[in-house]
Known about the structure:
Family: Belongs to the glycerate kinase type-1 family.
Oligomer: single chain
Radius of gyration: 22 Å
Pfam family, one: Gly_kinase
CATH class of the largest domain: Alpha Beta
Helix content: 25-40%
Keywords: Kinase, Transferase
Largest sheet: 6 strands, mixed
Protein name: Glycerate kinase
GO molecular function: kinase activity
Amino acid sequence: MRIVIAPDSFKESLTALEVAEAIKIGFQKILPDAEYVLVPMADGGEGTVQSLVDATQGELIYTDVIAPLGNQTQAFFGLSGDKRTAIIEMASASGLHLVPLAQRNPLKTTSFGTGQLIKAALELGVKKIILGIGGSATNDGGVGMLQALGARFLNQDNQQIGYGGEQLQDIIRIDLSQLDPRLSSVEVEVACDVNNPLCGPRGAAAIFGPQKGATTEMVTQLDHALLHFSHIVEQQYQRNIRDHAGAGAAGGMGGGLLLLPHVSLSAGVDIVINAVKLDQMIENADLVITGEGRMDSQTAQGKTPSGVAKVAKQFQKPVIAIVGSLREDYEVVYPVGIDAVFPIIRQVNSLEATLACGRENLISAAQNIARLYLIAKHIPS
């Protein structure tokens, strides 16, 4: 019997690998002779680097970068086991968690540090970069990131503009002639799970600006600045980044990335599925187990469990989801290929205590699910 265990992380409790290992322990108590294939998963957001590093036997690389407010911070990215692929989370260098609540102001914050992570990856000679762009503190259209990679955004005095979303309105000319030449031979695959355009009522500023500290007045200013930026891009490079699906992701980072040579915006879970070759692992499986910290209606909109289930159903494999908790709208996951869902919480407790005993709860739930699986398969224990 071959069992593939492909969960996401349980945020603030366990990494995806730790979740998979706990499920394996529980199942082994009942099915000790089964073959277990552990595939740590993610959907492009927080935890993607760790999941792909674990899945490819890679390593974490740490480096100092410019944080959103212009101060120094230490960030990290992943390097795959074959040294050919870098996995980067924008949040590591340009994340909202790096900006104190009282200082959150997307007029001022920069994505420069994310560009420095990309540059550090290029120094290692990678041929592909997987970039997750969730959790950002910025609304600068990715201009800071491009500046770190050698692009110049010039104002009326022919000087490079400064940091922050408000600076985009001063751009008169864009100069990409000094963009890092190594980018021409590197594929950049962007994990982008929203399809918002760059500007307008569904754009970066209107939808995501307030959670980064933008007031109503700031949202208007930022939207105008992004629109101006898009006009300059269209005038100089004949590229419509304004209306491109996903351009509004991460404060317009999706749009700015379209100025790089070989970039594609894709659903995060699909990128991870392809990177770990999940289809090859599931093809000969008897059972597929996935999971996440909390399952709700959003799970069916491209989160890890639905992505895993989609692959499994290509081969008509049964799928069980083991999750930390459920919201009342979770049942929409059944039509997307998940056959059964089991929450792991055994007793009512504080959130802190519940998170702390996540591993023990997972093992217990997995053991009971394995017993149920034996009954369903009519195999004597």
